[in-house]
Design goal:
Elements (H helix, E strand, L loop, with lengths): L13 H9 L1 E5 L14 H5 L19 E3 L7 E4 L8 E2 L2 H15 L11 E2 L8 E2 L2 H28 L21 E2 L8 E2 L2 H10 L15 E2 L3 E2 L4 E2 L3 E2 L2 H12 L4 E2 L6 E2 L2 H9 L9 E2 L6 E2 L2 H11 E2 L1 E2 L6 E2 L2 H12 L5 E2 L6 E2 L2 H11 L6 E2 L6 E2 L2 H8 L11 E2 L6 E2 L2 H11 L13 E3 L5 E3 L2 E5 H9 L2
Parallel strand pairs: 17-28
Antiparallel strand pairs: 1-28, 2-3, 3-4, 5-6, 7-8, 9-12, 10-11, 13-14, 15-16, 18-19, 20-21, 22-23, 24-25, 26-27
Helix pairs in contact: 3-4, 5-6
Organism: Panagrellus redivivus
GO cellular component, one term: nucleus
Protein name: Histone H4 transcription factor
């Protein structure tokens, strides 16, 4: 099967819209049937009018951030120690760096955890379990790295949003780095590091040794990073050193910046801006997807979303078609291979993906819910629960939004309607779907989706196998 073409959505123009239109179809399929007639999608209508987003309102800083803005000017900021019970502030990064080192020396250096226990990261709402004091040190160095990236993020934030609107995401400064030393995987190096910042700088320095003499017969630079027990070399190659340098951040863990409010890390400024614009209030997101009615603040976010509607990769074992290869790989792992490698340390239950394990831990083993509603005192264990709850505060909120097309029943969630379909109506899944999916209509209600945008490559490949 030919590879699905990659489209650039940096600009809004008719050429890009036409390219996307030429490479996809809308394929309707009634539940329980296997055939559908391809119909072209009007992506000009889908994109809708391009209306600039209004100016946002300023909000207060996140209490779980290493950095806080104290005024509108570039130098109006403080570093904040968010170790539990501390809160000390510093005008310079070096002050926070030395202060966290003192926390380690005074509380962990040279000590052993009590029998049958472990150390815990002292950073507020991180609380990662750590085996030894050396692991605590390395883990705290990753928090220092995070703090420096949040300062960079604040500088970028001021340029993009001078009023310092909040990103709207409420997350803790949890870093899943368990304190093992960082080992450089560049060929013939294997140098260990206890400090993430030093490790990143060291890995980047290897690019200084890459020259035109390293070009292969095709004129490309190979990534020389090796990893795993079998010491397998990274298969990626690039036409220039700049692209190789960017790729190397995948191995070093380097990031361009971190959100000064929620702490999320980003590889570039564009993704950082997308992060902020995704969570605008309902009334400020003015661009609407014609297929699902979801609203977006920028044309770029809308176009990235529209690409997800185009199903371009088919499962080799069933009729399921998804929007990307990684989604199909996940589907085959969970549905066909039934692989469950993620194990809960508390009870031993296993899960196919890490997200399911995290949901299990939050629901079964965490005492205090950590996701808090901004409009009321309620707290939730999962972010998805919080997102659903926040909708109840909207003026146009509809409690039972999921409608059955077979009877007058209405439900609060899609999962409840799915159970209704199978238990009451014995309805099979629409052909090519791995679950019941629902489309938001113009009246605000969700109804069963029986049509998909299928890429031409998938349709042509299916014809060859008939």
């Amino acid at each position: 099967m030919a590879a699905h073409p990659v489209f650039s959505f940096d600009d809004v123009d008719n050429d890009n819209t036409q390219m996307l239109l030429e490479h996809c179809h809308l394929q309707p399929a009634e539940p329980g049937t296997s055939n559908g007639t391809p119909m072209s999608v009007d992506f000009n209508a889908l994109l809708g009018p391009l209306i600039p987003s209004p100016n946002p309102a300023p909000v207060s800083a996140n209490m779980f951030s290493w950095i806080e803005a104290t005024g509108p000017n570039e130098n109006d900021y403080n570093y904040v120690c968010i170790v539990a019970g501390c809160g000390q502030r510093f005008a310079r990064f070096e002050g926070l760096d030395c202060h966290l080192t003192d926390h380690y020396k005074n509380e962990y250096a040279g000590r052993l955890p009590e029998a049958g226990t472990h150390f815990t990261c002292p950073v507020t709402r991180c609380n990662l379990p750590l085996k030894e004091s050396e692991h605590v040190y390395r883990h705290l160095r990753s928090h220092v790295f995070h703090a420096s990236k949040q300062k960079t993020g604040l500088d970028v934030y001021r340029e993009m949003f001078p009023d310092l609107r909040s990103c709207g995401f409420e997350r803790s400064p949890l870093l899943q780095l368990e304190g093992e030393p960082w080992i450089c995987g560049w060929k013939n190096c294997e140098k260990p590091f206890d400090d993430l910042t030093q490790f990143v700088d060291h890995v980047t320095s290897h690019m200084d040794d890459v020259s035109s003499a390293d070009l292969d017969e095709l004129g490309t630079y190979h990534c020389e990073w090796v990893s795993g027990i079998e010491r397998t070399r990274c298969p990626q190659s690039f036409l220039n050193r700049r692209c190789l340098r960017v790729h190397l951040t995948c191995h070093s863990g380097d990031r361009a910046c971190a959100c000064p409010f929620c702490g999320a890390l980003f590889t570039n400024r564009t993704k950082f801006k997308d992060h902020v614009m995704r969570r605008l209030p309902e009334g400020e997101a003015t661009l609407s997807c014609a297929l699902c009615q979801k609203k977006f603040a920028t044309s770029r976010l809308l176009k990235l979303h529209c690409r997800k509607h185009v199903k371009s990769v088919k499962c080799a074992y069933c009729d399921v078609v998804m929007d990307c290869a990684s989604a199909v790989a996940k589907h085959m792992k969970l549905v066909h291979a039934k692989i469950k490698n993620e194990k809960c340390d508390e009870c031993g239950m296993t899960f196919g993906i890490k997200a399911d394990l995290q949901k299990h831990v939050a629901a079964m083993h965490e005492i205090e819910p950590k996701f808090r509603c901004r409009s009321c005192p309620k707290k939730f264990r999962w972010e998805k629960q919080l997102r659903e709850h926040e909708k109840t505060h909207l003026e146009n909120y509809i409690a039972n939004r999921y409608l059955c097309h077979k009877c007058p029943m209405k439900y609060k969630s899609g999962s409840s309607l799915s159970r209704h379909f199978t238990s009451v109506h014995n309805l099979p899944l629409p052909n090519g779907f791995n679950r019941f999916q629902y489309k938001k209509c113009h009246d605000g209600f969700y109804r069963l989706q029986t049509a998909r945008c299928i890429s031409k490559e998938v349709i042509e490949a299916a014809k060859l196998h008939v």
